[in-house]
Design brief:
The chain is of the alpha/beta class. The chain has a single domain, classed as Nucleoside Triphosphate Pyrophosphohydrolase, CATH 3.90.79. Helix content is 30%, strand content 32%. It has 3 helices and 8 strands; from the N terminus they run αββββαβββαβ. The strands form 2 sheets. A 5-stranded mixed beta sheet has the order 4-1-6-5-8, with helices on both faces. It has a 3-stranded antiparallel beta sheet with strand order 3-2-7, with no helix packed on it. The protein is elongated, with a radius of gyration of 21 Å.
Length: 162
């Protein structure tokens, strides 16, 4: 009987150790997100004003389990701006600085998309406003996270891995 209890205790400790290792691996890893640079047919870019900070930013968010980057971009753009993607453009960059988002460490894949539809607020819990801007108007805006860098890289035709 003592051997059975001892074996059970060893098994339980091994299970606990494995659970701690797994949680450490899962919780100490950056999360993956997508950032969309939506270009309207008239050449203007679409930005959303974030409810959490009041700053303007590019649409985007976390990639869901089982979702591709393109599918996530389509979902996030529709959820936040009411727009649809007519065509995926180019990769602008992969941004991984731990300081890029003050909430958590995230890696962001920024892509250009060509969008259609009428911009509107589809998620009032996240979005205060949605608007289209001429590129020259962006300098006057305070942008969220590292979105100014995404836009600078986009306009300079750079593809960045940071």
């Amino acid at each position: 009987m003592l051997n059975g209890v001892f074996s059970g205790l060893i098994w339980f400790e091994s299970l606990q150790r494995a659970a701690r290792v797994l949680l450490g691996l899962l919780l100490r890893r950056p999360i993956l997100g997508v950032c969309v640079i939506p270009i309207m047919p008239d050449g203007r870019v679409v930005l959303m004003q974030r409810r959490d900070s009041g700053l303007w930013g590019l649409p985007g968010g976390l990639i869901d389990w089982g979702e591709t980057i393109t599918a996530s971009a389509r979902r996030e753009l529709a959820e936040e701006t009411g727009l649809q993607i007519s065509q995926v453009g180019r990769l602008v960059g992969i941004y991984s600085s731990p300081q890029r988002d003050s909430r958590f460490h995230s890696v962001c894949v920024a892509i250009e998309v060509f969008a259609t539809g009428t911009p509107c607020i589809n998620d009032p819990a996240e979005v205060l406003a949605v608007n289209t801007f001429h590129w020259t108007d962006l300098a006057a805006l305070s942008l969220a996270h590292d979105h100014a860098q995404h836009i600078d890289d986009y306009l300079a035709q750079r593809t960045v891995v940071d």
